[in-house]
Amino acid sequence: MKNKKKMQNKKREYFKWTLILFILSFLLSATLNYISSYVSERLPVTISFILLFCIILLGIIFDIIGIATTAADEVPFHAMAAKKVKGAKVSVWLIKNASKVSSICNDVIGDICGILSGALSASIVFYIAKNSKANPILLSILLTAMVAAITISGKSVGKYFAIKKSNEIVKISGKILGIFLKM
Question: Where are the transmembrane segments (predicted)?
């Protein structure tokens, strides 16, 4: 009876977490898509390229944070929290909730950045093709390949860095989040 109730609570908790991820993904995606669409329609193509690079970089940074939280050691952060080091309690919370943090950073934000970079790439290709005699298929292939190469190689370097410097990354993340969260 007790185990059955525990299983029901876990299922309920998992469903609740999935619903939160759905809502968060929807809101973040809609907001970031609106911003990138607005910028790409109204500003020069160079600004769209800068925005594209920022979206790719954002995906890489959050991938690093997600991996670092799963690789970090909780023990030093307890000592820092005891000494009242800013962000240490948040860092402990990040590590204790590493699976959720990783899910948000790697899956939600990472996937949204991947989708947005693809959509923005298509928008850039459309803009350039419309305003020049460039071959849209060739442009699309080149830009898609470039975005994929930058994203994949950036995340590859980021993973290595995230594992080697996990405690430092979690400490910085904790300090930044500590500004917004009171723990």
Answer: 43-62, 108-129, 135-154
Residue with tokens 């929807």: 26
Q: What are the tokens at 129?
A: 């093709």
Domain boundaries, given as residue ranges, for the chain: 1-180
Q: Are 159 and 67 in contact (CB under 8 A)?
A: yes
Which residues neighbour 30 within 8 Å (Cβ) at sequence distance 6 or greater? Answer: none
What's the rounded Cα separation, in Å, for the pair 22 and 147? 26
- The single-letter DSSP state of residue 87 is T
Which residues, 6 or more positions from 63, have their beta carbon under 8 angstroms from its beta carbon?
105, 106, 110, 155, 158, 159, 162
Query: Are residues 77 and 172 in contact, defined by beta-carbon separation less than 8 angstroms?
Result: no
Taking the alpha carbons of 155, 161, 163, 166 in that order, is the dihedral positive or negative? negative
Q: What is the pLDDT along the chain (183 residues), one digit of tens a residue?
A: 677 777 777 778 888 888 888 898 889 888 877 877 777 777 788 888 998 999 999 999 999 999 999 999 999 999 999 999 999 999 999 999 999 999 999 988 998 899 889 888 988 998 888 888 889 999 999 999 999 999 999 999 999 999 999 999 999 999 999 998 876
Could you tell me the two tokens for 176? 């930044």
5: helix, coil or strand? Answer: helix
**Number of residues in the chain:** 183
